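Our consortium's second objective concerns turning raw sequence data into structural hypotheses that experimental partners can test. To show how far this objective has progressed, the report includes one record in full. It was chosen at random from the queue rather than selected for favorable results. The single chain below, 254 residues long, was entered without modification.
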Amino acid sequence: MKRKHLESALSSIQREFPDPKITLEQYPTSPSLTASVILVALERGDLGPGTTALDLGCGTGMLTLGCALVETDLVLALDCDPDALQLAKENFEDMELETAVEWIHAQVASVTSSTTKVSNKSNNKRRPPPKTNTIQASTLETRQLIAEDEDGVLLRSNCVDTVLTNPPFGTKQNAGMDLRFLRTACRLARRTVYSFHKTSTRAFLQQQVTAWGYSFHVVAEMQFDLPQVYKFHKDKSRDIAVDLIRVDLTCTEN
């Protein structure tokens, strides 16, 4: 799929949060940023026919829809906000895509927390999920970066080929949330993780991922357009330098 066609399709949906929640750091992901990560992953064989994916913290569904538009076999879309999850479902239905999508209400928690929140798991009924063993964890190697369910997400380790996430960057109230998302993404993915992070955190994240034993690469440097969403925002928009990182779980680092 050409970039202009992907961006055009993504521009047609409701990507803004109707009632954004600052505690969740909810900001819309632009069609341009979404197209960038989808096309990079598609070119490398991490998305598209024959693959499965998870959008971790799906929000209004931009990355989920991007995966579906390039004909990924199965997409799991996970978010802790039921309002955002409902809007993502509606966006998917409006586009009338054939990809099987499974919607999951769950929250990424600190690995020290024993509280889990998971509910409302339902399948897209347009067609049954494809016959694949990818989400049958018994057929996959289970990594021990985090014990299953310790992060509050009741999904088996290595349950999809690729995880994509645009995590909270981590304000004072949510310090470390970006790393929690990345750690959970590495638990759930079988092959690769794509994640957006502030460029200022690059050295720290690379150190962490390398310590986990995985390969860390910055595949693109971008500008995240932060719109005037909350009352305390003084500017109509502000650009934040972000990295699109790719974690290769099949290539270990010493």
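The partners drew two points from this record. The two ends are 37 Å apart (CA to CA). The first helix runs from residue 3 to 11. Both points have been shared with the crystallography group to help prioritize constructs.
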